[in-house]
Amino acid sequence: MTRNRKNNTGPRLTPRQLQILTRIRDYQRSHGYSPTMQELADELDITKVTVFEHVEALIAKDLLRRAAHKARSLEVTSNAHFPDERPSLIPIAGRIAAGVPIEAIENADTVDLEDLFTTRHKRFILEVEGESMIDEHIRPGDWVVVEQRDNPGNGDTVVALLPNGDATLKSFYRETNRIRLQPANPKFKPIYTKEVDIQGVVIGVIRKY
């Protein structure tokens, strides 16, 4: 689930430069010291000369520093930013049962909150008021992430603007000669209308405890 993306913070890096910088960081974390140029070359299956050229470029960009005439002296600077260290990137630790306990599972995947609701359409967030969609697990105080488009399918949860100017969050159904906006709570009645302005389709719900 982890997705590659360009390093948009700080100096622009080539894919190979980012690979070398990341490898140095990972090596330092696991060994407590930096790799040699030859170790980097062997690990990445490139020549030592190529590694040296990229390291020099990273030093020029103030992303690495190195002590002269000293082995294993490469050090990643605080100016380096890595795609896999974005605050929005959260590791999936495994699975948890809400009933019978299950064995904990090691999992290397991540969920990128920044990418989670990425679409080709514009998005916006609305805070939910009322309980008309409670059976769809949309509660008062939740935030719905809405994709801004006006072509919902039957059953989609939509933000609908009614002819009287009221906006509502309901499930959309196109019926013969009318549109039904269906609540997800038996205490509320459906809304029937021939005209409705769909502001967007819900693609996610955010709840903070």
Explained architecture:
With 209 residues, the chain is an alpha+beta fold. The protein has three domains: 15-83, Orthogonal Bundle (Arc Repressor Mutant, subunit A); 86-116, no CATH class; 117-206, Ribbon (Umud Fragment, subunit A), CATH 2.10.109.10. The chain has four helices and eleven strands; from the N terminus they run H-H-H-E-E-E-E-H-E-E-E-E-E-E-E. The strands form three sheets. It has a seven-stranded antiparallel beta sheet, with no helix packed on it. The protein is rod-shaped, with a radius of gyration of 26 Å. The two termini are 25 Å apart.
Topology of this structure?
Blueprint: H1 15-31, H2 37-44, H3 48-60, E1 64-65, E2 75-76, E3 89-91, E4 110-112, H4 113-116, E5 123-127, E6 143-147, E7 157-161, E8 167-175, E9 178-182, E10 191-193, E11 197-206
Antiparallel strand pairs: 1-2, 3-4, 5-6, 6-11, 7-8, 7-11, 8-9, 9-10
Helix pairs in contact: 1-3, 2-3
